[in-house]
Amino acid sequence: MIHTSPSPAVAQRTNAFQPDAYTWAFVPHLIIGSNDHASRWSPWKSRLFMGRMLEMADIPSSACKDFASIYAYLQDETELLELLRQVWRMCTLDQYKDEHAQMCSVLEWLNEEPSIRDLDRLIRYIKQYIRTCKEDQEWWARCKHSAVIEPWILRSMLWGKDSFIRELCFLPLGKPLLLGVPASPRPKTITSLLKDDCAKSSRSYIELKTDGVAVNALSDTGVGRNIMSLDHAQKCGASIDSSSEKQHTLSNAVGQEFRCIGEATVRVAFPDRLTPARNVVFSILEICSEPLVMGRAFLKTTSCLTRFRHRLIKVARSAAQSLSRVMHMDSSSERLSCQVSAQRVAAYADTGSDVDLVSLQYASEHMWGIIRNPGESDRVTLSDGSVHELEGYVDLPITIGAETSMRRFYVLAGLVYDVLLGAEVLDQFDIWNEHTDSLIQIEAFERNEYCNIAWYKRFDQVEKEVDDMIKGTFTPVKQRTRLTSFKAMFGRGGNDARGARTQHALAQRLYEIDNIEKCERPLAQERIAGAVGDAKVAEVNSDEDRQQRWLTLRTKIVSLQKRVQADGTLAPGS
């Protein structure tokens, strides 16, 4: 008998059933029908599969004593076994030439089976399986003809891809899926594409207790600090320190700054009770789209992205959340070395972003054809709650290590990075487990470029560029001679495109001088500490002059950003 949700017996079985590794490695072949003992699964992969199969079949604890009892029980459950085989084989028939026709036929058949409505997870597996297979056309063509005849090939098609195995870890259990035949394909606009991304994407959360209050905390590598909303701080009775030194400055993905109202120290624990509770410092935001956001330091300390990744749960975005979100709040020296359209780039990895982004200037410099629909307003929400218009999108291949995948990058004017990678692609490639060698630190590079090689020369250059912007003579992106090329790059011309380029250039210069100051300040402190007498006084004066010069230029750039945002241009007299 198949149940829609786990019964009390299942909960008891979870604690009582402790099979050995050999059992886990062999049992899946009974489901698939393969006698290929030599290619048994690893216990880890088998546990993912069998944990759900046993739960859906509601195998009693009496049948889970050893391998022989499980074998006997599964042989009796002919209805379940045959049902699984039929569903999988329907996905490999040659008569279905495309994914849409496949899924229509499968779902029509499933709706005729009264018991299949309880196997919502199986249907999710099928959809993911089809998407995974289609990513490699050659592999698909080679395997699909013999999959029905050779069960071990069918097994490989279903479970052989690591990305598909990882997807199983995050599927919600016990939640029914509304079945229905998909509508006929229709032309996609960027708005409908964003809605599709919203419908199929999910966000990674960590189940925590803050001073005893249960909450789902967003895991976000795009913020260094841990963030708590004011509402949640009041709910758990946190004491907020609102002194000026605790009101830190944060910045969104386009360099616009906002401040937290203070800090609070809260007792945080995982619900499994296996890890002791700890005191965690949170920056408090008066308005935040999430009650809790756990930053890079917490994720690294607790190994939530690596060793203890099972702590992450996937929560699907609701249909009401029509706008994609980028929760970037500060920068980090860590970057992901990858290739986008065969161009080497140090991308910023942000698990708090729903989409992959590329800056307008970077897309324009590489002459990527930006696709957009005139008259539409396609937007993204940033961490401070501000909403920004997207310029369009580009479909490009991304290569990380030896893996390549086609991704959709949305174009955002003013993005402070060339490329920002969101949660979906980071999960797909399993960056923090499979590609740690692609994670690089840029701080050492910045020290060499800015601090050790006459940083003031670069600072002079930035000052001149900012002055040129004020005079209206600076061009952030090299002008093309043909008007058609200009329109192809930006999707529109006139002041809007010039303003977007200027806004991006200002954000980049602000980010650059902040990095120069960040690298130079500790070096200056070292020089002061090592000097004596008049030399020490000279070093102190030089340090004060440098900081004052940095603050002056920074204030000037922020003022220009506000002018561009208000007027859309930096034309003389505006």
UniProtKB/TrEMBL annotation:
Domain of life, source organism: Eukaryota
CDD domains named in the record: retropepsin_like
Entry protein name: Uncharacterized protein
